[in-house]
Design a protein that fits this description.
7-stranded mixed β-sheet; alpha/beta; globular; single chain; 187 residues
């Protein structure tokens, strides 16, 4: 299974844990024209039907488009939000978090920093692990291996971070199964 598909599965998988009736339709915020945005949306699109979730891409090129799209989506019922790993989503994280929380959209973000800023859940690669593993590469290079001969490594450790304060403010009950899976819980 491809890396994007594994991450997409994890992000889609946690939304229905809040109740299947609440998360039937999910916008996926990212930039469809950017290769990583296409890959991440495609991964979410592959796994969503098996969980009974319909996904829709939402273009996040600027603050105005983000606000219009998420506000329009929030008028419908049974929704959640997945924010993919793009630079513009990161730049506009405070706006995205504010809109998701205001409209009570359960949201899964790609980086733990969103949760520290008040977001609900993040699921993504551990950002410290690659630095730890880089030491092994440095060691191998110093022992004479050619850098071009070393394989490219994909993330191996993923984190699920949950903000209980945000969940409470949104009126969400966090299932014990989700709490048990969380690597970190912010209270």
């Amino acid at each position: 299974m491809r890396l994007h598909t594994l991450i997409g599965l994890g992000r889609v998988e946690v939304l229905p844990l809040y109740g299947a009736d609440r998360t039937r339709h999910v916008p996926v915020a990212g930039i469809p024209a950017v290769a990583s945005g296409i890959g991440q949306f495609g991964a979410v699109q592959i796994v969503a039907p098996s969980l009974g979730v319909q996904v829709t891409p939402v273009d996040v090129r600027d603050a105005g488009e983000i606000e219009r799209a998420l506000t329009a989506f929030a008028r419908g019922l049974n929704g959640g939000l997945i924010v993919t790993g793009t630079a513009l989503a990161f730049v506009h994280r405070d706006l995205i978090i504010s809109l998701a929380n205001r409209h009570r959209l359960p949201a899964v973000y790609w980086h733990r920093r969103f949760i520290a800023s008040g977001g609900l859940i993040s699921y993504g690669p551990d950002t410290i692990d690659p630095f730890r593993r880089a030491a092994g590469y440095v060691d191998r290079i110093l022992k004479g291996e050619k850098p071009a001969d070393l394989p490219v490594q994909a993330p191996t450790t993923y984190e699920l971070v949950l903000n209980l304060k945000t969940a409470k403010a949104m009126g969400l009950t966090v299932p014990e199964t989700l709490l048990a899976r969380a690597d970190e819980v912010i209270e």
